[in-house]
Design goal:
Number of domains: 1
CATH class: Mainly Beta
Strand content: over 45%
Distance between the termini: 27 Å
CATH topology: Maltoporin, Chain A
Largest sheet: 22 strands, antiparallel, barrel
Structural class: mainly beta
Number of helices: 6
C-alpha cells in the first residue's frame, strides 16, 4: 500500500480532505466544510486554533486563557461556563483519528507541521458521535514520508502592542528508514508576550475593616505564556496492503497572570486588571495513538485507538466573591480564627485536574468505485476526570476548615467518568450516474457518573444567604454527607454519588446531484446529540441528552479558477442543556429550552497565476423558541411551578437570541505572489469581522454584563522565498482592535456585578479580549 499523501497536497487547485473518513476532493464532499491546508496555515500566521477560527466563518471560539477554550458552530451556544461538572462541549475536536475534547475544551495544540485543519459544520453524529452535535474540528498532522530524508527549521521574533517581546523556534525532520518505513519528529518552543497589566489597588472589607492591597503583585505585561512540545510518528508498511502508524505527542504550557481586562472603578484604562492573589496555570498532556490500515479482500479496514493523559494546575483570584458577599450580606462576620478574631475574607483558588481518555474505533469500507458503498464501524471511549478545587481563606479556624485541608473554606474532590459506546454506518447508492442517496445510522449508549465531595466544613455547614440577605443552612458539604465514608481518595466524606445512562439512535439522510464533475448540489437532514450528565447539587435530577436536527441545502461549484460554495440551513435544538451559576456559585444544568437557527454560509475564491482572492461569511439567526424559566417544567410556562414545586421566574422570553455567536461573521483575503529573480515574493492582506453578540441568554444577566460589541481586525504580511529560504514580516490586528470574546464575574452577576451599587464601588467584570497588534519577523530554512 502506498503511503497516503498529505491532505493539503494540491493537484492544481484540488484540496484533499478526510471529512467522511475517506480521502476525497473537498469539492466532492456534500457537507459544509472549510479546510485550511498546511501552507495556508503558515500564510495566515496560525499558531493555535484561535488563530485559525478567524478564517472559518461558521465557528466561534470563547476562551478565558490558553488551554481553556470552547468552540461553537452556527450559533449553537447557550452560554456554557465549561465547569468541570457541567455539560460536555457541543463540538468534537479530533487530532488525526482520535477525539481530544475534554470537559474544559479542546487541547491548545501548537500548529506546526500540520497537514490541515478541517471544520465540518452541522451535526456530525453519524460518523463522529457524541459531542459532535453541532460540528467537528479535525487537526491532521503530516504523516511520515517514505520518499526521503528532509526537514525544516523556522524561527520568529514578535512584539505585541502595549506589551513585551515574544518568539518561536520550531522544526521537523522526516527520516527515511527504508523504502517502507519513515520517522517524522517535530519540536517547538513558543513564548507569547504579555500585554495585561496588574495595576495597584486596595479595598476594605466591610465587616472586619481589614484592608487588602496588591502592591506585591503589581506587574506590567504579566500574562505571558511559554509553550513547548514534540511529536513523533512512525510509519511502517508491513506489505503492499497493511500499514502501521504509531504516534506520540506531548506539550507543556505555562501561563502567568490572567487574560482579561477588568471593567470596574479600580482601573482607568484597557488591558488592566487589579488582582489580589497569584494567578497562572500549568497544562501538560501527552497523547499516544496507533492506527492500522489495510485491506481484507477489496475492502478497506482501519483500526485505531489511543490514550490521552492531561494534567493541569491552576491558581486564580477569587477575592471579588468574598468582597461582594461581605459588602452586601455581611458574610465576613462568619470568618474567624481559632481565637475567635475575624480574619481577612480574601479568597483564592488552587485547582488540579487529571484527565485520562481511552479511545478505540474499528471501521470497514467497501470499494469506493462501486455503485453501492458502505462504511461501518464500532466505537468506544472512556473519559476519567479527577477534580480537585481548593477555595482557600488563610488563617480560618479549624471548625470552619474542611477536614483534611490546610485552610479551605470550600473543597471539591470528585471523580467524573463519561463512557460512550456506538455502532455506526453510512450507506451510499448511486441512483443514477449523477444522483446519489446516502443514509446514516448511529446506535449509541452513554453511561456517566460523578462521585465525591464538594462544599463546606460541618462548622460552616453549607451556610448561605438568600436573595433577601437571610443567613440559613442548607447542608452543603460535610453536613450533607450524613456519615457516608469517602469513596474518592482525598475527600473527607461523600455527599455526591450519582450516575445516569441512556441508549438511543441518530440518523442522517442525504441526496447529492452532480450536474458536472465541477458542480454538485445536495440536501441533508442530520441529527446530532450530546450525552446527559449529573447535577452535583443535591436535590437536582440528572440532565438528559440534547439533540440538534439540521435541514440543509447547499452547492459546491468550481468554474475554472473560481469556486463558490454555499449552504443554507435550519437547525432545531431540543432539550437544551442550559447551564448557569446558582447558589454558592454552583453550576446548575437543566433541559429547559428549545431553539431554532436559520442560517447561511458561503465560501468563494479565485486563484490564477500569482493572485489569490477569497471571502467567506456566515449569517445565523439563532433564537430560543420557548420561554426560558428558572426551573424546568414540561409546559415551558414560567407562570407554572417547576416539576418539583418551586416558584418559577421568567429568565428570557421566546424569541431571545442565543448568546456568544454574532449574526454575521466574515473574512476576506487577497494575496499576490510575483517573481523576484530566483526568488518569489508575496504581499498579503486580510480582514475579519465579527458582529455584536449577547453575553448571556438571560435578560437580567445580559443587561448587567452587557453585550459584546462588533469588531474588525486586519492582518498584513510581505515576504520572499526560494527553494531553501523564506523570510516574512507580518502584522496581525494592524489597527489594534480591542475586541471582546468572553466576559465573566466571580460569582452571581446580581452580586459581583452589584447592579444596585450597594457595595459603594460598583461591580467587577472581566472581559477577555483578542491579542493586541502583533508585529513579527520570520525566517525559515528547508534542508
Amino acid at each position: 500500500m502506498a503511503q497516503q499523501a498529505p491532505a493539503e497536497e494540491q493537484q492544481g487547485d484540488i484540496i484533499l480532505v478526510t471529512a467522511q473518513k475517506r480521502t476525497q476532493n473537498i469539492q466532492d464532499v456534500p457537507i459544509a466544510i472549510t479546510a485550511l491546508g498546511g501552507e495556508k496555515l503558515r500564510e495566515l500566521q496560525v499558531k493555535e486554533l484561535q488563530d485559525a477560527v478567524k478564517f472559518i466563518p461558521s465557528v466561534t471560539i470563547q476562551t478565558t486563557q490558553p488551554g481553556f477554550s470552547q468552540v461553537y458552530f452556527r450559533g449553537v451556544a447557550s452560554g456554557e461556563n465549561a465547569n468541570h461538572s457541567g455539560p460536555l462541549p457541543t463540538v468534537g475536536t479530533y487530532l488525526d483519528e482520535m477525539p481530544i475534547t475534554t470537559i474544559q475544551g479542546a487541547l491548545d495544540i501548537h500548529a506546526y507541521d500540520i497537514s490541515r485543519v478541517e471544520a465540518l459544520a452541522g451535526p456530525q453524529g453519524t460518523l463522529y458521535g457524541a459531542s459532535s452535535m453541532a460540528g467537528t474540528i479535525k487537526i491532521v498532522t503530516n504523516a511520515p514520508d517514505y520518499s526521503g530524508t528532509y526537514g525544516a527549521v523556522d524561527a520568529e521574533m514578535n512584539s505585541v502592542a502595549h506589551g513585551d517581546v515574544g518568539g518561536v523556534a520550531q522544526g521537523f525532520v522526516n527520516f527515511k528508514l527504508s523504502d517502507r518505513a519513515a520517522l517524522r519528529v517535530v519540536g517547538w518552543y513558543r513564548h507569547d508576550a504579555g500585554y495585561i497589566d496588574n495595576v495597584h489597588g486596595s479595598r476594605t472589607f466591610a465587616v472586619s475593616g481589614i484592608t487588602q492591597d496588591n502592591a506585591d503583585l503589581v506587574e506590567k505585561n504579566y500574562n505571558d505564556v511559554d509553550t513547548y512540545g514534540a511529536r513523533m510518528a512512525l510509519g511502517i508498511e508491513l506489505d503492499d496492503n497493511w500499514t502501521v502508524t504509531p504516534t506520540l505527542m506531548g506539550q507543556v504550557q505555562k501561563t502567568h497572570g490572567s487574560f482579561a481586562q477588568e471593567r470596574s472603578s479600580a482601573v482607568s484604562g484597557k488591558l488592566q486588571t487589579v488582582q489580589y492573589n497569584p494567578e497562572g496555570s500549568k497544562d501538560e498532556w501527552y497523547q499516544a495513538a496507533l492506527t492500522i490500515t489495510g485491506q481484507v479482500g477489496n475492502w478497506d479496514l482501519v483500526a485505531t485507538g489511543g490514550i490521552l493523559n492531561r494534567k493541569d494546575h491552576t491558581e486564580s483570584d477569587y477575592s471579588d466573591y468574598s468582597y461582594f458577599y461581605d459588602a452586601l450580606n455581611g458574610s465576613g462576620a462568619y470568618l474567624y480564627d481559632n481565637a475567635g478574631d475575624l480574619v481577612s475574607p480574601n479568597q483564592y483558588i488552587q485547582g488540579k485536574d487529571k484527565y485520562r481518555r481511552q479511545f478505540g474505533e474499528l471501521r470497514i469500507a467497501s470499494p469506493q468505485d462501486s455503485r453501492l458503498r458502505l462504511i461501518a464501524g464500532l466505537y468506544a471511549q472512556r473519559q476519567v476526570h479527577q477534580i480537585t478545587q481548593n477555595y482557600i481563606i488563610d488563617g480560618i479556624a479549624d471548625v470552619i476548615t474542611v477536614p483534611g485541608t490546610d485552610s479551605d473554606i470550600w473543597f471539591t474532590r470528585q471523580k467524573r467518568i463519561d463512557r460512550d459506546y456506538a455502532a455506526f454506518g453510512e450507506l451510499s447508492f448511486d441512483l443514477t450516474d449523477k444522483l446519489t442517496a446516502t443514509g446514516g445510522l448511529r446506535v449509541y449508549k452513554y453511561k456517566n457518573s460523578l462521585a465525591g465531595f464538594f462544599g463546606y466544613a460541618e462548622g460552616y455547614s453549607g451556610d448561605k444567604y438568600t436573595d433577601e440577605g437571610v443567613f440559613i443552612r442548607d447542608g452543603t458539604g460535610v453536613a450533607g454527607c450524613n456519615g457516608a465514608a469517602p469513596i474518592v481518595s482525598g475527600s473527607p466524606c461523600t455527599n455526591l454519588n450519582a450516575r445516569t445512562s441512556d441508549t438511543g439512535s441518530i440518523y442522517k439522510a442525504n441526496l447529492t446531484y452532480k450536474f458536472s464533475p465541477d458542480w454538485l448540489v445536495y440536501a441533508t437532514w442530520s441529527r446530532g446529540f450530546r450525552p446527559g450528565g449529573i447535577n452535583r447539587r443535591g436535590g437536582q435530577p440528572p440532565y438528559g441528552a440534547d439533540t440538534l436536527d439540521n435541514y440543509e441545502f447547499g452547492w459546491k461549484s468550481q468554474i475554472g479558477a473560481f469556486h463558490f460554495n454555499y449552504a443554507m440551513y435550519r437547525e432545531d435544538w431540543s432539550n437544551i442543556q442550559l447551564s448557569f451559576l446558582g447558589e454558592n456559585g454552583l453550576t446548575l444544568i437543566r433541559n429547559a429550552g428549545a431553539a431554532r437557527i436559520y442560517g447561511t454560509e458561503f465560501d468563494l475564491g479565485y486563484r490564477k497565476g500569482g493572485l489569490t482572492l477569497s471571502a467567506g461569511g456566515s449569517y445565523n439567526d439563532a433564537k430560543i423558541t420557548k420561554d426560558f424559566c428558572q426551573y424546568a417544567n414540561t409546559a415551558f410556562d414560567c407562570t407554572l411551578p417547576s416539576e418539583a414545586g418551586e416558584d418559577n421566574a421568567l429568565l428570557a422570553r421566546a424569541g431571545t437570541s442565543l448568546p456568544i455567536t454574532a449574526k454575521f461573521k466574515g473574512n476576506a483575503l487577497a494575496r499576490y505572489e510575483f517573481p523576484l529573480g530566483d526568488w518569489t515574493g508575496h504581499v498579503q492582506g486580510s480582514v475579519n469581522y465579527i458582529g455584536k453578540r449577547r453575553s448571556d441568554l438571560r435578560d437580567a444577566e445580559n443587561e448587567i454584563k452587557g453585550e459584546f460589541a462588533a469588531y474588525t481586525t486586519a492582518d498584513f504580511s510581505i515576504g520572499v522565498k526560494n527553494d531553501v529560504w523564506r523570510f516574512e514580516i507580518y502584522a496581525n490586528n494592524v489597527f489594534d482592535s480591542n475586541g471582546v470574546i468572553n466576559s465573566s464575574v466571580q460569582c452571581l452577576e446580581t452580586t459581583c456585578g452589584d447592579p444596585e451599587g450597594l457595595s459603594g464601588t460598583g461591580g467587577v467584570f472581566y472581559d477577555y479580549v483578542i491579542r493586541p497588534r502583533l508585529i513579527g519577523i520570520k525566517v525559515g530554512r528547508d534542508f
